[in-house]
Amino acid sequence: MRLTINGVGQELDLDIRTSLLDALRDHLALTGTKKGCDHGQCGACTVLINGRRVNSCLTLAVMHEDDEITTIEGLGQPGNLHPMQESFLQHDGFQCGYCTPGQIVSAVGMLDEAKKGWPSHASKDLDGTVSLDNAEISERMSGNICRCSAYPNIVDAIRDVNEKGAA
Amino acid sequence: MSEHTIQMDKPIGETRLDRRVQDVIGKGVARHEGPLKVSGRATYAYENLAGDGKNVAYGFIVTSTIGAGKIKRIDAVAALGKAGVLHVVTDSDGPRASADPGDKKPTAINGQITHYGQPVALVVAESFETARDAAKLVTVEYEPTEGTYALEDAQDKAFDPGQGVMPSIVKKGDFDKGFAAAEIKFDQTYTTTSQSHSAMEPHACVAEWNGDELTLYGCYQLVSTNVGQLAAALGIDKSHIRMVNPYIGGGFGGKLGIGPESVFAAKAAKVVGRPVKLALTRQQVYQDTSRRTDTIQRIRIGCDRNGVINAISHDTLCGNTPGDTVFEPAGISTVFLYDGENRLITHRLAEVNVVLASAMRAPGEAVGMLALENAMDELAEQLGIDPIELRKRNEPKVDPQDGKPFSSRMLVECMEEGAKRFGWADRSKVPGARREGEWLIGTGMAAASRKNLLQKASAKVELRPDGSATIETDMTDIGTGTYTILSQIAAEMLGLPLDKVAVTLGDSDLPQAPGSGGSWGANSSGSSVYAACEGIIEKIAAKLGVEPAGLTLKDGTVIADNKQTALTELLAGEPITVTGTFKPGDAFKGTHQASYGAHFCEVAVNAVTGETRVRRLMTVAAAGRILNEKTATSQSYGGQIFGIGATLTEELVVDPRTGLIVNHDLAEYHVPVNADVPQLEVVFLDERDHAASPLASKGIGELALSGVGAAISNAIHNATGIRLRDYPMTLDKVLAGWAAGKQAA
To answer: Which residues of A are less than 8 Å from B667 in CB distance?
Structure first.
């Protein structure tokens, strides 16, 4: 089968049981996407599929032949970091770093959702534009667990990117 | 290469770190390894040998489906018959759980099932999917026995576990007599549940043999200890093992001892002649590694009407698996936090058929200070004294147990500064007096203390002819900031810009450090880097024919006798390499060393549902020199949030019939998520503890957890008027408290 990861098409021979996450980590050596729980509970495996954030452990690789998949490696590299990666670095939005790729990819997807006006549990209004205050960011990022507990800095990092309109 | 050793026998006065010529020490610079972590380029254990054509095989652990009994037979025939299955490891000397850091090796299965979900066998196959599938085909025949799964059911058979990280019993004077004679007698019992470290990276490894030489890519906190444990478990000499752990996806104590994965993977890799990758599933992390024990703690305080303590006692009961005798030192702070002539601190241990109980972040203080600091709050209320004032009235001048001077102690300053910043004076002293809509608002405070621990440590520092430096040690960075602070220490000492310092960690081929645990890492390992740099400075001084004290190092140059020379010129093509070693000495033995702090919290408790939300949380801390303000603050946030979880949501639920940990995943074991946490406040008081180490620092990583939960639960009481003594303080307990209160009225 063919998977398109970070704009690059790759031919693969995969077990139909292989999750998208394991395809990335075990078959494509794209180990930036992390396995924390394999049950869609922690968010460490978040990738963007056609621009939307998805837990890659909860979807099978064979389902994504025609999709555009973006992983942390596709956002930026040292020396050429994405604004969200740079903001996490400056705000210390991580400690051990294991949930971090998932947090960053999720944050990028989340800002896009907010831009489109999607409401959250923290939204006062279901219609209209979304103003991303701390409560909105925290709520929308609660699918990504960080046991080191960098949450206050994660919120700062994302708010900063949003306010600068950089991502 | 030469060596330079510092043994800390007396306090060290002003150092280059105080003069701050390069001005990088203490600064909140971004993490050294940060660009790799934010871009997914930092390689964690499981990710080694990915995509390099090494023909890696995959493992999956088979676990027990009973909680206690004997293994009669393991039938792997069906699994072995499946296409793609390479081998099934069924050795009875495989580990039954993680090792405690103090163990020589993990306890072996030895034909027994001592807890539910215990490792029994390992299936190795061509792919992860095949190994997982085949693991279900391994059938195990058991001879079940009656298990004991609840601490309460085992307490009658509890015993004195003897010496652990502290003596099980610490006493002074005559507690019983002092308590009996006291004007005011306080006596309450508090309970805490089993907790899980729940690091985001599940325990994982890759084992690769080259002849008789094993390379283990792991995720362990204490490399030099862990190499020895793995060697002992495999029955080989540790010189045959190289352990590589440059990045560790969180530890919190859960990776202090080796996990079952490394022993099983190494055994399997030897047999199949290929590298084996093995990650525990999240469920296996809960059931097969370790946990923090649940506790039943009784606090008794005898004092006069002014709150001056004459007798204090802290009795702790905790549990562990049969054969594992490590106890939770919950009374560790009670030994020295408050004054009082008559003291009795005891710990007892009971055997339960639940996975290994071992160290989890701030072992002792994390749960012990919940009880102690709740008790102080209750006592203050009973006496009508402000909780801060009660603590001040019992502030000891020297260690109340053995009379040693404190190396430094700023508890009172922390409480006073926190009170001012938090607005403590404005709080309602009457519980239940503040309401906003359906939310009841309350505030609480608690003291924090964490014993300062120091260990011997070594590191090699090389000043290179191009004016850069490298640091090499087997020390680990579990998210604590080790890479960053070691680079800052070397840059400050050697007068180098930060980007000229490279750090290599976590490789057992490098000089030995004590690893990450007990908040000793930065101080111990950092001091070894300090020692190495001091050795390098001596050599530079010798080259120039001056005394080391007369040297100033800045921006890659050395200034002596009013002459500035570039290091590149001075080195003239030759590196200077020194292995520095730091040893704790008489300064550590002669003083009582601990970090101190004070927590202040505001909660809102829903008057309808009983749900508690933390609205404000402030920790003021004094832990000696702060080596990096940014990473130290992050560490403290982490401690505070660990405390929010312990107080409000975290509880390992063990099925009393089978021993199954029912909530063995991240959906059901509730660690705090982003929306559970407000923007937090952390304040560091300026302190230098020159008796603690050449860095004048003390531990910080666990301090913010110590006592923080008590500030939250004391705030719940202030909001609601209910005294809960059973952690975590979930909404059902708040509602039950109201119901009981109404019934009583």
So the answer is: 39, 41
